[in-house]
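explain this.
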Amino acid sequence: MGSAIRLETVLAGGLWSVHADPNQLENVILNLGVNARDAMAEGGRLTIETQNAHLDERYAARHMGVPAGQYVLIAISDTGEGMPPEVVAKAFDPFFTTKAVGKGTGLGLSQVYGFVKQSGGHVKIYSEVGEGTTVKIYLPRFIGAAEDEVVTDVSDLPLGEEQEVVLVVDDEPAVRQFSCDALVELGYRVLEADGAVRALAMLEAQPEVSLLFTDIVMPETNGRKLADAARVLRPDLKVLYTTGYTRNAVVHNGVLDPGVELIGKPFTIEQLAAKVRQVLDS
């Protein structure tokens, strides 16, 4: 990795088993580590994290070919230069590379994609220019004999009340819509904004907002700066952050302070219900 790169691991206990080729998995992690190193020409932090995860029916419906269920998540994060959306969209294409001639084949991420699909899994890239990149690999939990998936009845979840108003802020329309739909289903009244300027105007016009639910990494003004400005207007405002990056990455990069309320993407409606209720009741 080189002396300018700090390597950090955050490995959860009690991880589920997966059914995958260990040698290929090792190569995938090494491949992603090398990509991360190359994106940090001036040095930085490379973080490898593991945890158990659940992708629900709503997530599966928005990602063709991804079965809902239990997965083991492996996340590789860097503090490098990041990628714009048009590069992220092509990142898994064979022979696509942003590296100089002779520096890369463009096969690295396509091989990662092939391994993950061969293993029945899912891979997702979160990246913003100037902020860094997180690659999340989801490998299906291996439990032997098939078990029926438990479908949660929304009425069994901690619900909101109509007078509790949540302002959802996210620059990605599809993600914002999913959050809004889930919160409405949970009984909250929901307002939405695509960025900080619109969100602050709505907070001034809507003093009944109980909770600001904001993405962290957004163009122009990030979620942290938005929350700081919002609390100048409303010192008592509750704030819940969300991000595709891992908690460890955003805290260590100085974007957020330790101990803030954060829910990672993708989240299930059960996780959202519990977290929103926890923040509002705190």
In short: DSSP finds nine helices and ten strands in the chain.
